[in-house]
Amino acid sequence: SFAYFTIKDRLPQILTRVIDTLHRHKNEFFEEHGEKGVEAEKRAISFLSKLRNELQTDKPVTPLEDELPDAALWNQYLDYQRNLSNGNGEPSWFQSPWLFVECYMYRRIHAALAQNPPIDNFDVFKEGKAQNFFESQEAVITLCTYFQELLKNIKDLDEKQLQEELFKLLQVSLWGNKCDLSFSAGEDSSQKSSPLQSLENMIPYILVNDMEKLWSILVNAKKRNREKSNVRVDIILDNAGFELLSDLVLADFLLSSKLADEVHFHGKSIPWYVSDTTKHDFNWTIKQLQSANHMWMSRCGINWEGNLKKGVWVYRDHMFWTLPHDFSSMAEVAPDLYADLQKSNLLLFKGDLNYRKLTGDRKWEYSVPFHQALNKFHPAPLCSLRTLKSDTQVGLKPGQGEQIQASEPEWMVNGKYGIVQFDAAL
């Protein structure tokens, strides 16, 4: 299975890169922290080498021994996995649900650093994320330029034109999800071509296209809320780099077009899945744009900093996003987060990992309704924007998946297809 290939090949590659990254930064740790820094680096590397060995030799998954705030929840979840196996031995790397062990690996990478001050705040994936941003420079300039030109006459656009622009930026945000470093095990995955040119040609590759539904939910929320409260959209972020930029442009468009009054972004509280967005990545991206020597890039950065200061953009993270649970457990495990999402008019879930957690990462029949696969997770109307990079997919028309499968066996994992899949949460 694709899961087997991921655990056998991709995850050890990612661990090897993490170890190499720490090696390369040895001098920097020494300059900043003296011998303590070098000692911490050695301890972290030995922890990670041991982890890689456990993974490759299919050892049992062990409870977390650190004192971090989420450790108890992780260990409870491991007990739950033990009980599921009905005494068929301990859950191990190759004998457990893929989603669980993959999340577990990233949590152990975090522990390797968090337990080794003074390098406990070092993000082993930071360089790759920054590189993705810089190597996508041309696409970034194209998108910022397009967007700033659009803003000049946004007030003159009629409803049809606004809808067209929304659909365009939704698609840029969707295909921005191809820029995923955990998928390429950290290899270059930057956006080289213009993100706007090929949209028309890409439409046939959107297997579920619910953009019309998003439009009507935003327009109706606007009409209903004209008298009283704000229209709020939440974006549950995926990758830093070009994808994050495409999400920020979409968010700014929602405000500038008055389709939304506030946008809440949800990122990861620890480095995750190689390229996932943390608070540092979020702020760093806006600072990079502000200080760029390109007029429209810096205009975006300055405006977005302003949105954060005014409070019309809010960034938040929550430890739930880096737990192994699927989202159907959110109301129970993180009731505060669930209650917050219930205040939203629309939740946009970016990327593959969020989709796997929305659907419980099961091997569903392709035609099972999305609503059913969500397993009672309905805090607010929600939509998944995702390019397919793992083999779970629901909500297709009868025969649609089988038909593609016949000509393209890799269709679910090669990132070529996408979905804009909506659930009304009724």
Automatic annotation (TrEMBL):
Reactions that this protein is recorded to catalyse: beta-D-fructose 1-phosphate + H2O = D-fructose + phosphate; beta-D-fructose 6-phosphate = dihydroxyacetone + D-glyceraldehyde 3-phosphate; L-glutamyl-[protein] + S-adenosyl-L-methionine = [protein]-L-glutamate 5-O-methyl ester + S-adenosyl-L-homocysteine
InterPro entries: ARMT-1-like_metal-bd_sf (IPR036075), ARMT1 (IPR039763), ARMT1-like_metal-bd (IPR002791)
Single annotated GO MF: protein carboxyl O-methyltransferase activity
Manganese is among the record's keywords: yes
Domain Damage-control phosphatase ARMT1-like metal-binding as annotated: residue spans: 6-404
Record text about domains: Subfamily III proteins have a conserved RTxK motif about 40-50 residues from the C-terminus; the threonine may be replaced by serine or cysteine.
Protein name: Sugar phosphate phosphatase
Organism per entry: Uria aalge (Common mure)
